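Tokenised fold entry reproduced for absentees:

. . .
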Amino acid sequence: QVQVAESGGGLVQPGGSLRLSCVVSGSSFSIYRMSWYRQAPGKQRELVARITRDGNTNYADSVKGRFTISRDNAENTVYLQMNSLKPEDTAVYYCNVRWVLPADGTWGQGTQVTVSS
């Protein structure tokens, strides 16, 4: 039974930092890609960052230079280091795991990030 466990969210002031973690367990399938998405109330869910098994990364323009995604393949864990946080970064952040086979994905439960003075 696959489980995706997220942690690290919280309340920070503008300019502060947070580190999100996502741990995948209970799967015999190979991971193709791990991604971070976010969704604010009343807004469309958007891709923040993603990383493939070979280390290729992609970032949303709004977070380039501030956020860094990394992956520990041995531990099936992905991290999102968030620096220089802005109020517009406030959202629920979700971890998504895409598998080699089947061609499908699994979502985490989400963790709240709030950036406010």
Remarks:
- The chain has a mean pLDDT of 94.
- The two ends are 41 Å apart (CA to CA).
- DSSP finds no helices and eleven strands in the chain.
